């Protein structure tokens, strides 16, 4: 999916919500516990309930990997379902990969050939040649970590160099030499508030994937005040706040309501563009 | 495996070699191409041939993941074989994971419960709370990226802050508040030469996992001149130089010879301690 197609989906559906599929087998509603294919059944219901209100889904690899082969099977099944039933939704594999060139090339095969998702989150620590192997796939995106939503983002990402450039700003600036805004997005945590101003100074045109609204405490309004672009330029993710909104057999309806609420807030913001 | 046990293995076997199992299905010897279980058969032969000359194995996750479920099955089978047949070898999952706390906790389950290896490589970019969830497992290690072996290491890892501290030095210094040298090692690329002096100033006692000898051009002598400690404190990895030493049916013997050569060089270095 290219940028224009993504932006069209956003403006047509009046939402820039991404639903995070951080499906923890221990947190499934009681009615699914112990059922065969419980994780896929859960994901399928969540997807069917929320699809009208979002433009993207973001399975978090750790939650699948942690259950070994069975988890990878659930992931594969979920992605296949999305691609068949909801081909206009953008799929993000949240895997935060990145390694030396020949190894990143292998990760690219995992996500852009075997799983065949639209995009992958990548860690910038190892620099250009850890990122470029992902860029040889037409229509596929990488989403580079810039400023993350967690407390530990303060440990290194705000380190200031001699020219007063912070590490996350350097990541944003330098990585723009590797790929343009048709193939690269950045992760910027919703919890970072005003830092969105700094981000937009360095990366005025890139789409941002914004986690941290909801369970982590970030505010949609703050994010949009500084981060939004004429074609939106934002994908705001919510995981736990939507998928675990209720743990009874009404979990899908509860997820629908939460996603619908967010879509309504987003529609108001988009109307002001 | 604790540090003392690892050091004992090194001094007893006179080697600090780690064999990297970067098994690429397209590079298998002709005699294995198209065979069922070719990757596991290859790994098993390489392990049986090299086990006397090394103390550690490092499967590189990307090479398994890239083949989806089949690859994960090969990885699981390889790790199980190592644990059953060679329980005194240290196993490193080279996966370079790291995410917000609840997600890193899931990755910890993948590698320290499901796969049950001794250690995992972790990326430092997201800071403390992305690393600490891995530390709750007694006897398990994390190996944090500090200064990597690739060209892209120059993009961010050498960024100097206002106190003249380079980013990799800051990672080494700050992360020592998270775990001690009984549970944390660092990745430092063999290609970094004299930077080992700087690394040892900041991390004088930690074990280092050193990739980049062989195919990537690093020198064992340089690494040891600045990096070695009284209990060795080094695991030097070679992947392609050993496992692809020959692509005929004699691949295992060729791997044995290469590993034996490295062990001989290492024995000479250890004799001077």
Task: Explain what the structure shows.
The structure is a homodimer of 273-residue chains. Chain A is α/β, with parallel strands linked by helices. Chain A has a single domain (3-271), classed as Alpha-Beta Barrel (TIM Barrel), CATH 3.20.20.70. Chain A is 44% helix and 15% strand. Chain A contains 12 helices and 8 strands. The first copy, chain A, has helices spanning 3-13, 38-50, 61-65, 68-85, 101-114, 128-131, 153-156, 167-175, 195-202, 220-227, 240-243, 251-271, and strands spanning 17-21, 56-59, 90-97, 119-122, 141-147, 184-188, 208-210, 234-238. In chain A, strands 1-2-3-4-5-6-7-8 form an 8-stranded parallel barrel, surrounded by 6 helices. In chain A, helix 9 (195-202) runs parallel beside helix 10. The longest helix of chain A is centred in the last third of the chain and has 21 residues, at 251-271. The first copy, chain A, is globular, with a radius of gyration of 18 Å. The model of chain A has no long low-confidence stretch (mean pLDDT 96). At the A-B interface, helix 3, helix 4, strand 3, helix 5 and helix 6 of A face helix 3, helix 4, strand 3, helix 5 and helix 6 of B.
């Amino acid at each position: 999916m290219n940028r224009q197609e993504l932006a069209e989906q956003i403006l047509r559906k009046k939402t820039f919500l991404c639903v995070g599929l951080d499906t923890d087998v221990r947190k499934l509603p009681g009615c699914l516990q112990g059922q065969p294919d419980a994780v896929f059944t859960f994901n399928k219901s969540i997807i069917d309930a929320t699809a009208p209100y979002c433009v993207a889904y973001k399975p978090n690899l750790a939650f699948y990997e942690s259950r070994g082969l069975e988890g990878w099977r659930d992931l594969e099944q979920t992605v296949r379902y999305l691609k068949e039933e909801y081909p206009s939704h953008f799929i993000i594999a949240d895997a935060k990969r990145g390694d030396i060139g020949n190894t990143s090339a292998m990760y690219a095969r995992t996500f852009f050939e075997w799983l065949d998702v639209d995009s992958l989150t990548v860690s910038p620590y190892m620099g250009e040649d850890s990122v470029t192997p992902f860029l040889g796939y037409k229509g596929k995106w990488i989403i580079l970590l810039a400023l993350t939503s967690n407390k530990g983002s303060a440990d290194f990402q705000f380190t200031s160099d001699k020219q007063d450039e912070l590490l996350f700003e350097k990541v944003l600036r330098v990585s723009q030499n590797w790929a343009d805004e048709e193939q690269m997005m950045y992760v910027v945590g919703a919890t970072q508030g005003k830092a969105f101003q700094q981000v937009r100074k360095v990366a005025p045109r890139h789409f941002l994937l914004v986690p941290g609204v909801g369970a982590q405490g970030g505010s949609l309004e703050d994010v949009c005040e500084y981060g939004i672009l004429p074609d939106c330029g934002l994908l705001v993710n919510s995981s736990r706040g939507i998928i675990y909104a209720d743990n009874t057999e009404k979990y899908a309806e509860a997820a629908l309501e939460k996603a619908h609420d967010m879509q309504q807030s987003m529609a108001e913001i988009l109307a002001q563009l």
